[in-house]
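hey so u asked for the seq, here:
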Amino acid sequence: MPDSGALAARWPLPDGGDLRDALLAAWSAPDRGYHDLRHLAEVLDRLAELAAAGVEHEAATTALAAWFHDAVYDAAPGDEERSAKWATEALPPLVGATVAAEVARLVLVTERHRPEPGDLDGAALTDADLAILATSAQRYEEYAAAVRREYAHVSDTDFRAGRAAVLRELVAKPALFHTAYAFERWEARARVNVTAELARLTG
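ran it, structure tokens below
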């Protein structure tokens, strides 16, 4: 687990330290399972990987959206909307209303991970967010267990049904990843992992 100090150095703005610290505190909440500092760091890592590979996107704006995309997370409906609202309210003094609105829009795209054709920033962010699906079997099992902890208040039966529905929606997509780089490198592995988890849930 990365510490908040290491992540603080990855804040994409030259100022806004108070906002950065508030976001880090939100990501550090003790009731989080998967959507924690490690997830934030991994999304930022994958965005950096995409950028290094020449995948076109606006790096600073997309990184800001990564910081906000699960900033509000309590395993209840509307997390993305509330995270986007936070961005809309907090960012204008730092980046202006236009960039703040774009960050909020990108946060909302992560709810369904279905960016529109030509949405380069949305494609990069959703690919980075879903890259966890393409990790090693061990890391994927850690991820799945962490998601279950976030829904500890839900019965096993209800969780299995709900999680299986999410996974079925994922595997029904023509492609999990929207950039050529991510599709070529992550798609096949992700489908193996998701299909295996779905089998465990429904077997």
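The chain has eleven helices and no strands. The two ends are 32 Å apart (CA to CA).
lmk if thats what u needed
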